[in-house]
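Trying the structure run again after the queue cleared.
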Amino acid sequence: METSAGQVGAVRADDVRTRDRVTALLLEHGPQTASELAGRLGISPAAVRRHLDALAARGRVEERAASAAQRGRGRPARRFHLTDAGRSGFAHAYDDLALTALRYVAASGGPDAVRAVAEAQLSGLEQRASDAVARTSGAPVDRARALAEALTAEGYAASASAIASGGQLCQHHCPVAHVAAEFPQLCEVETAVIGRLVGTHVQRLATIAHGDGVCTTHIPGPPRRGPGQWRPRPEAHPERARGEGDEVLSHTGAGNRTPPAGPVPGERAARVPRPAPSTSTTRSTPTSDRERTPA
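Done. Tokens:
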């Protein structure tokens, strides 16, 4: 018998709804056996066991032996517990609680008090990440890669890569995005922490809190001198040796030129004899033949 795509989709949707009901019952009533869950769901224990196996494979539930107080006669029952990953699928009020607390702090102490809370909250993260970064001795981009691994362990799903202008650190998840959208001090303090860990000034280009898909931090590389880069003017280094024909510029005097140094007046004749007038440079008044011949 052939099964259409619509029928397969309907079966999968039913499975998802049933598994959501299983996790909801475990959250509401605590650890239970497959038989207890089957009685509440109105399906067979074998069907419940199939859904529990699928949830266990995803890490949302786990099976444990019943405690001695819960055991009766016969074979000890195995109870299924909801894991932390399973609890995370339900709505939490953590963001609302954090927003309420920070709003109170801001009303009482102003923006600086909010910044102090952010610094205290990130100090533990900075200490844990610094241990991983300290084992990397290299360029800021290399330290950023080590920092990305440490941030990923903290739940930020981070990565680092080298680009033409230096490096780039990307955080694909932000645990406090909703809170940081109202209090940007959290992003500012986090940027400062990243700069201290990589050992250079960094620039935040995008944040999830402001609606971007990824938190992106630019890590500038070492400056490189290009062919058209500025170079100091010669007069900025008067100690360098001047070659023949170099002009000495001055900030004073007509035309910003310093006249060449000469001897002290009064000593010129004593030290340097005055040259005799040259006949080659003295031009006599030419006379015509008419002036030399008597009339």
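Confidence is low (pLDDT under 50) at residues 234-261, 264-270, 279-291. Worth checking whether this holds up in the mutant runs.
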